[in-house]
Amino acid sequence: MDGLDALKAKYLTAVANVADEAGLEDLRVAALGKKGEISALMSGLGKMEPDQRKAAGAMLNVLKDEIDAALRAKKAALGDAALNERLRSEWLDVTMPARPRRVGSIHPVSQVMEELTAIFADMGFAVAEGPQVESDWYNFDALNIPPEHPARQEHDTFFMNRAEGDDRPPHVLRTHTSPVQIRAMTAQGAPIRVIAPGRVYRMDMDQTHTPMFHQVEGLAIDRNISMANLKWTLEEFCRAFFEVPSVELRFRASHFPFTEPSAEVDIRCSWEGGQLKIGQGDKWMEILGSGMVHPKVLAAAGVNAAEWQGFAFGMGIDRIAMLKYGIPDLRAFFESDLRWLRHYGFAALDMPDLAGGLSA
Ligand code: DAH
Fold first, then answer.
1. What Pfam families does the entry give (predicted)?
2. Which of 47-61, 279-293, 296-310 has the highest mean pLDDT?
3. Is 27 exposed, middle or buried (0-12, 13-18, 19+ CB in 10 A)?
4. Predicted model pTM
5. 316 Cβ inside 6 Å of ligand 1
6. What tens digit of pLDDT does each residue of 117-148 get?
7. At 7, is the pLDDT very low, low, confident or very high (cuts 50, 70, 90)?
8. Is the pLDDT of residue 89 over 80?
9. Ligand 1 site, residue 141, Cβ cutoff 6 A
10. What is the CA radius of gyration of the chain?
């Protein structure tokens, strides 16, 4: 049994040097497997004399246990190393800030519509809607703009074709959101408080005009509504929308067929170094038209003008979006240039609300 020491040294060295679990298993089979070296020596015991067998058997058992222990210890060590390696390679720093992945962008016009809807909702205005293809009665007549009225020409109207032989007046692409006043009052009567944001169309195209643009109409009818309520409402809106502590509005007498009296409203601002500031400075920027709803308009919508009165206004949404977010060219709004949208757009999950800050 002199060879046992050599055998022991051979296996212990091999176990110490083996690099992975597969190699270790090969060693186990070679030493202790059914046809392994130790097993072969064990089966040789049967041919020995009893005394010899006893001594050799004990030595072989010790050797077998030693090799077995070495194999197990190595197996555990390899397992730990594998786990450590995995932990090291899969390590991640859960304290790092998440990288926000942008899923599309919200167009500034949509953003501004959400903002102004939130502000007016807070003041008790619901959102009303009307069709973009409108009859000319709603778009003009009901708003006290009869066919011969010069305001019809000023609207640069797009007319829809009628079928051959159909001589009813053509439908138009609505030239303003004011027809929604008529639809809302007809449907709901008075009292009423609504805004109507949406698309409008006029045949016009230059740096400050596009054939399609956006307006928001406002309408508040009750028993005692006056110009004072109009002024307060618009000031509240501008303060909230432009996110400044105070604004100053200037009401200029004007004329619209659907209001009497009528006023155009300018907001105080300054232009310094190409930077627009709302609420301070010595410049005025026109932002909307408004007035007390004309009795004929109330009548057209079936509202008794002897009992009810109120104000209306119409404001350009694209205009106030440009002012608030410093966007220089109106035409770029509608060119569908993704680079522009990525620059001026808003994150999709950032819904504006008054509590959270509108454009935070
Ligand atoms: N509809 C007008 C326009 O497009 C804007 C307007 C002015 C709306 C006065 C109103 C208003 O409701 O009272 O130019």
1. Phe_tRNA-synt_N, tRNA-synt_2d
2. 296-310
3. buried
4. 0.72
5. no
6. 999 999 999 999 999 999 999 999 999 999 98
7. confident
8. yes
9. no
10. 42
Do residues 291 and 190 touch, judged by C-beta distance below 8 A?
no
Tell me if 260 is assigned to a ligand binding site. Answer: yes
Answer whether 213 contacts ligand 1 (Cβ < 6 A): no
* Homologous superfamily, domain 105-347: Bira Bifunctional Protein; Domain 2 (3.30.930.10)
Please tell me the predicted confidence (pLDDT) of residue 253. 97
Q: Is the pLDDT of residue 105 over 90?
A: no
Secondary-structure percent of the chain, ordered helix, strand, coil, rounded to 5: 45, 20, 35
Ligand 1 centroid, distance to 258 Cα (angstroms): 8
Q: Has residue 100 got a pLDDT over 90? A: no
**Residue ranges of domains in the chain:** 4-89, 105-347
- Residue bearing tokens 């730990």: 80
Is the minimum distance from the CB of 289 to ligand 1 under 6 angstroms? yes
Query: What is the tens place of the pLDDT at every residue in 320-350?
Result: 999 898 888 889 999 999 999 999 998 877 7
For ligand 1, atom 3: residue with the closest CA: 176
Minimal-distance CA residue to ligand 1 atom 4? 176
Distance 201 CA to ligand 1 centre (A): 14
In the reported structure, the alpha carbon of residue 91 is separated from the centroid of ligand 1 by a whole-number distance in angstroms of 62
Report the alpha-carbon distance of residue 70 to residue 90 in Å, rounded.
30
| Sign of the CA dihedral running 285, 268, 229, 241 | positive
Q: How far is the CA of 256 from the centre of ligand 1 (A)?
A: 7
Q: How far apart are CA 85 and CA 89, in angstroms?
A: 6
pLDDT band at 170 (very low <50, low <70, confident <90, very high): confident
Return the beta strands (E) in the chain as ranges: 105-106, 126-127, 133-134, 172-173, 192-201, 212-222, 249-256, 259-272, 275-278, 283-293, 309-316, 346-347
**Under a CB-based contact definition with an 8 Å cutoff, are residues 283 and 271 in contact?**
yes
Ligand 1 and 310: CB distance under 6 A: no
Helix (H, G, I), strand (E, B) or coil at 347: strand
Specify the ligand 1 atom closest to the Cα of 215.
4
CA of 92 to the centre of ligand 1 (A): 59
For 13-31, how does the pLDDT look when each residue is reduced to its tens digit (9 = 90+)? 999 999 888 999 999 999 9
